[in-house]
Amino acid sequence: MADQVRTARGGALAGYAALVTGGGTGIGKACAARLAADGAVVTICGRTEKRLVAAAEEIGKSAADGGSVRYVVADVTSEEDVRAAVAAAAEPTGGLDACVANAGGDAEYTQPLHLQDVGIYSSVLELNVVGTLLSIKHTLPLLVASGHGSFVGMSSIAGHQTHPYFGAYTAGKAGVEALIRNAADEYGPTQTRFNAVRPGFITTEIMEQVPRDSPVYASYLDQTPMRDVGAPEDVANLVRFLIGPESRWITGQAINVDGGNGLRGGPDFSSWIKGNPDQDTILARKPLES
């Protein structure tokens, strides 16, 4: 594990211990950095140790106000891995105050529904929904024991507005939001809070696949009132608020960080699937007459 980085001062989250899954890159790394910068003892986990080492080194250089970072290799679809990651996150302070269930995503597989590979579809659901469930299951006793536990699930604007050709990703993120709402209701009496965040187009490694001169990128801008794309830090700032005591009366919510994209519609990825004979045949058929 990476060495902890501490300073003499205490930030607003001093004494907090937090677990950030999928913390080696993108939004997860930004969330971990934001929490550590405000005094939290943060544990990041992910499947690729090389990325975790690099992320922990980067975050450690900027951690302040008593904050620190450490890492553990874990796959959120493995219950044993999640159990071990939670135990590791609780080691520094003897407890856990927060969890950011950021690990998730798709299979980089853009296809219409009738062409979906069931194996790939199932794996995406497992990563997003089951991974979030396992994170809830194993952090919950510690979050409850803290007396002010906060769990943040990572959804997407695709979890509540249509994103044609995104396959299981849309269903997976909608599943994350359903888990968050039910957990907030079930565990509200314990003063443990559950919220979700819905990022729009954020400049992460995954979204770099969309060329800036493409019609897909143009469709994102057309559907975004602020006419721009977000940064991982924009999401991290909201996550920090939801983790901290300032949001003590907020639970069961899914909050957009999207420059207003949710006011309009999802992106147009049709240019990515044109030329597929099966798809073109389906779309060419006329609707049945009543």
Automatic annotation (TrEMBL):
Transmembrane residue ranges: none
Domain of life according to the entry: Bacteria
GO molecular function terms attached to this record: oxidoreductase activity
Entry keywords, A to Z: Oxidoreductase
The keyword Oxidoreductase is annotated on this UniProt entry: yes
Pfam families recorded: adh_short_C2
Alphabetized SUPFAM superfamilies for the sequence: NAD(P)-binding Rossmann-fold domains (SSF51735)
Annotated family: Belongs to the short-chain dehydrogenases/reductases (SDR) family.
Protein's name according to its UniProt entry: NAD(P)-dependent dehydrogenase, short-chain alcohol dehydrogenase family
Organism: Amycolatopsis saalfeldensis
Higher taxonomy: Bacteria, Bacillati, Actinomycetota, Actinomycetes, Pseudonocardiales
